[in-house]
Amino acid sequence: MQLVVCPGSFDPIHNGHVEVITRAAKLYGSVIVAVAHNAKKTYRFTLEERIAMAEETFALFDDVTVEALPTDMLLADFVRSRGSILMVKGVRNAQDFEYEAPMASMNRHVSGVETVFFAGDPKHNHLSSTIVKEVAGYGGDVRAFVPRAVQRAFAEAQ
């Protein structure tokens, strides 16, 4: 089987992410969940918290590991440094694809790393980390949308 990388900020990881990563593991055999941190962005959860939530979410998966994406390295270089040439990204709609496609082209031209897009399950198409954070921030119930590790993190923050 082949190793693939599923990158993202995962702030927080939600069931749409989990669905795509699980499918990637079944199809390719081995997945690195690369948790990114951009100093120019404001995050709800620290990098360490986001990694811990992803690790707990995939703890029972022998074929899924979680790593921090180094801030001083291009994503494509990270993928190649792990012995892969393939990334998997989930897309919910045409807008997601239009955002991701130019980056995929650049990664392919610069480093030979290919990006495969998985259409997300329609039952998760309304999910985004931003919406989950907003609903939770107003005290809304997000249990149906996020793994238990994220549920606990929100509960502990209140």
Automatic annotation (TrEMBL):
Q: Which domain of life is it from?
A: Bacteria
Record: residues binding substrate: 9, 41, 75, 89
Q: What's this protein's name?
A: Phosphopantetheine adenylyltransferase
The protein's required cofactor(s) are namely: Mg(2+)
> What is the organism field in this record?
Rothia endophytica
Instruction: Identify which top EC class this enzyme belongs to.
Output: transferase
Gene3D superfamilies the UniProt entry points to: HUPs
How does the annotation summarize its subunit structure?
Homohexamer.
Record's InterPro entries? Cyt_trans-like, PPAT, Rossmann-like_a/b/a_fold
